[in-house]
Amino acid sequence: MKKNNTLKVLLITIIVAFLLTWILPIAYYNNGIMGGFSEFTNLEFRYPAGIFDILGYPLIILTSYFMHPTLYILAVGAFYGVFEQTGAYRKISDKIAKLFKGKEIIFFATVVALLSTIVAFCGFSYELIFVLPLLASIILLMGYDRITVAMTLIGSIAVGFVGSLFAKGITGTYIASLGTNYTDLIWFRVAILVIGIALLTFNIVWRLKKKFRKDDETKELIAEKYEVKSRKGKKRAIWPAIVIFDLVLILMILGSIDFNGAFGVTIFDTFNQNVMNLKISGYPLFANLIGKQAFSGAIGTWLVTDFTMFLVIATIILAITYRIKPNEIFEGYKEGAKKFALSALLVYLAFLVLVLSVNHPFVLTLIKPLMEITNGFNTITLSLSSFIASVFYINPDYTASNLLPYVMSVIQDTSVYPLVEFISQAMQGLALLIAPTSIVLLSVVSYLKVSYKDWIKNIWKFFLELLLIVFILFIVIIMFNVV
To answer: Which among 3, 52, 276, 425 could disulfide-bond with 287, CB atoms 3.0 to 4.6 Å apart, if both were Cys?
Structure first.
């Protein structure tokens, strides 16, 4: 707790959310669902979370969707535990670090652009934890510190989130609530994506010019050297591990792109339907073989549960390919998962803030006075409201469903809804950088053993720069009456 105060900060945030359930009256917006009237309801009484609530909510998280990110993170750790024992992990890290020696600017510019673009199309946030250990190993071998690793990954995810283009889990979530389209303000979102990539790259390169202190904890993040040999005593090639790693990442990317909703491509839906309906002698072999409950379905609709299964399968294939002994597989699983244990715990605890905010709806009580400062649409009050909601609701699904119905009641001019969507996703992306409930922030800094204090100390300038660029674009959109 003394060396890594991220857990302390998160626990304080949970306590604050708990206390707010006692201090603030509850408020919610009924948007007419189930035949009700569309109205804002600010009840005079409070609905505080009790002792049994705060003890029982963790059990609810264990049996709900909120547990899936935690399991995914542990699966990533297990994958790398076995990956390390193949010997290929360290060799790949060494080769890439050596390849970009003296070409660090090209390396970071490429990585930031690639990761940000993936997020902009796929909507990933904590899902990109899959690349964290490899990315950390490479950057540390290049001679840079853990903050640089964190800036590269968290910064790229935040930039891709702010400039989301066709991501179903980000832009798609907001447009579903507001009735807007993917193409609305598309060039402004492209602009913030490109500017954000350039700005983050500049901040990282500027940091590279400084000297970095080495410490013993850095060694734990670099892949160990293993020599895995075949039965004939020859060293095994690294290409099978590269293929397996790349295949998992490609499947995750393809599985998350909204081909149908964003691009009108239905081939994957049709293919999935044909496969699942195919019968051999009247027996639905593929439907039963693949399964209908745990698997999401067509490419473009895959979720984190599918990615977790891919990781488990990939880990088994890695072990078989490199003929790793069962006891070594178990040891790799254990050691890999242990490295991500704190990350998994923090992500699990972060959802307590969401559960408290939803079951004891105090967030709108905080936001309503802000929204009422001005009549109708106002960039500053909406941005601040969206940021606050992002801190408590954690992900776009809950922000959109709990905040936007009320926002639409205040801002009834539908012509500005594309800008409302842009502001909502931008504030959620900015919250990823500094919010103590940001899943990606918690996962990365805890894995890297970077304290929350040190992270804020090193990221606040980039946060303010990106915030300034975002507001400039908002002003340009309003001044030139783009919406």
So the answer is: 276
Alpha carbons 255 and 265: distance in angstroms, whole number? 13
Distance CA 132, CA 291 (A): 31
Cβ atoms of 170 and 396 closer than 8 Å: yes
Collapsing DSSP to helix, strand or coil, 142 comes out as: coil
Write the pLDDT tens digit of every residue in 222-264: 888 877 655 555 677 899 999 999 999 999 999 999 999 999 9
- Please write down the long-range contacts of 136-140, taking CB distance under 8 Å and 24 or more positions apart: 136/221, 136/222, 136/447, 136/448, 137/89, 137/90, 137/93, 137/221, 137/222, 137/223, 138/93, 138/96, 138/97, 140/218, 140/221, 140/222
Q: State the Cα–Cα distance between residues 42 and 44, nearest whole angstrom.
A: 7
- How far, rounded to the nearest angstrom, does the alpha carbon of residue 98 sit from its chain's CA centroid? 30
Q: Which residue in 30, 29, 27 sits closest to 44, CA to CA?
A: 27
CA 7 to chain centre: 19
Q: Where are the domains of the chain?
A: 6-258+300-479, 260-299
Per DSSP, the three-state class of 374 is coil
Given a cut of 80, whether residue 413 has pLDDT beyond it is yes
C-beta separation of 353 from 19 below 8 A: no
Phi, then psi, of 317 in degrees rounded to 5: -65, -40
Q: What is the DSSP string of 175-229?
A: HHHHT--TTTTHHHHHHHHHHHHHHHHHHHHHHHTS-----HHHHTTSPPP---B
R_g of the chain, CA atoms, integer Å: 23
DSSP-derived secondary structure for 85-106: HTSHHHHHHHHHHHHTTT-HHH
Q: What are phi and psi of 405, to 5 degrees?
A: -55, -40
What phi, psi does 31 have (nearest 5°)? -95, 25
Q: Is the pLDDT of residue 291 over 70?
A: no
Cα 363 to its chain centre, rounded Å, is 22
Return left, alpha or beta for 376; rule: phi > 0 is left, psi -120 to 50 is alpha, else beta. left
Residue type, 479: M
Contact between 255 and 307 (Cβ < 8 Å): yes
